[in-house]
Every structure is written in C-alpha cells, then in structure tokens.
Write a structure and sequence with these properties.
With 190 residues, the protein is of the alpha+beta class. It has helices at 28-43, 47-53, 150-162, and strands at residues 60-62, 72-78, 84-97, 101-103, 123-124, 126-135, 140-149, 184-186. The protein is built from three helices and eight strands. A hairpin with a 4-residue loop joins strand 6 (126-135) and strand 7 (140-149).
Length: 190
C-alpha cells in the first residue's frame, strides 16, 4: 500500500527527467504501479484512512512521483460540474488545445511539493490527448482520444508535465505571479 512518505519529493532528480514510454502490452510491474497510484487517490477520499495513515489526498499522481520514470499517471477527481472522473493513463500525447486558458484561483498543489508556491498557472482550457487507458477492474487496456475541459484539463496537464520533468511552479510568472492574461478565466466551481 502506497503512503505519502513513499512519494518522491521536490529536489529528487527523477522529478526533472523526461519519462520513458511504457511498453504495450503492460508488464505486471506497470499494472501494479497503476493500481498503486489508483489506490492512493481512492484512499484520499476516505477521511478515516487519511487520518489514520497521515495521507495527503490528491486528485492525480504520476509514475515519476514514485521514482518510476515512465509515462503513466492516474487521475481521480470531481470536475466543476460535480461529475466524477477516474482514469489510469498511459503514454499520453496532447494533440490539440484551445487558445483560451484557465486557472485555479487557489493555485495548484502537488504531492511532491511541500513548499508553498503562490501564483497562477495558466493552462489550456480544453485539450485532446491520444493515450491508452487501463481499466484496473477488467485488466484491459484501450487506445482512445480523451477530450477534457476546465478543471479536468488542468489536472491532466499538471500530471502530463510530470512526464517531462516540469513541476507546476515552473509555470508561475516570476515577476508577476498573479498576472492574468486576457484569454484566461478561472475555473468556476458552482
């Protein structure tokens, strides 16, 4: 079982590497990594478990955060409309994106970053990505195109960055961290 202490923290060089493609079909080791990431996110929704194991909840986690430099990550989050999304993503590639940007007014956080980095991270409001999805329950993998917008697009891009050695605070404007360009609007949770 994966715990917060098992997550690689900022300063570890693996977080700054470009991750390698994952071989398909998945090895048992890669399947287990995806299962572990998925389980960690699921456990974060259980308040008792969080308290008992001193877990830091998250909505996404990438393999490099476990010290594994491979292109895969898990997302488990509610979007701004209250819809639940649960993905285990392998070898993603963003193939198109909007010109319009979006951001979180609270800023972004990361399981691998313990320091507070204040500022806005402007990301594409809508994205399309080619990827493989792994269904843990059926032990099946499918190739697909994911179309995401708003909050889910932000979460995807945050995890996607981990595959290229980028951390969220790298995107914060160093001179004016709360600058908002004309084409960027905050995600609105109603």
């Amino acid at each position: 079982m994966l715990l917060y202490k098992d997550i690689v923290k900022d300063g570890n060089e693996v977080l700054r590497l470009k991750a390698n493609d994952v071989l398909i079909p998945l090895s048992n080791e890669d399947k287990q990594t995806l299962k572990d990431m998925h389980e960690y996110l699921a456990n974060g929704y259980d308040e008792e478990f969080v308290k008992k194991h001193d877990l830091r909840p998250g909505v996404g986690i990438a393999a490099p955060q476990l010290g594994i430099s491979k292109k895969m990550f898990a997302i488990m989050a509610y979007d701004e409309y209250g819809d639940f999304h649960d993905y285990c993503i392998i070898n993603p590639k963003i193939i198109s994106h909007s010109l319009e940007l979006t951001y979180l007014e609270t800023g972004e956080g990361c399981l691998s970053v313990e320091d507070n980095h204040r500022g806005y991270i402007h990301r594409y409001k809508r994205i399309k990505a080619n990827c493989f999805l792994y269904d843990i329950n059926k032990d099946e993998i499918t190739k697909c195109v994911l179309s995401l917008k708003g909050y889910l697009a932000i979460v995807f891009q945050h995890e996607y960055d981990h595959l290229f050695g980028t951390l969220f605070f790298d995107h914060i404007d160093k001179i004016n961290p709360f600058f908002v360009p004309e084409n960027s609007k905050p995600v609105s949770f109603e």
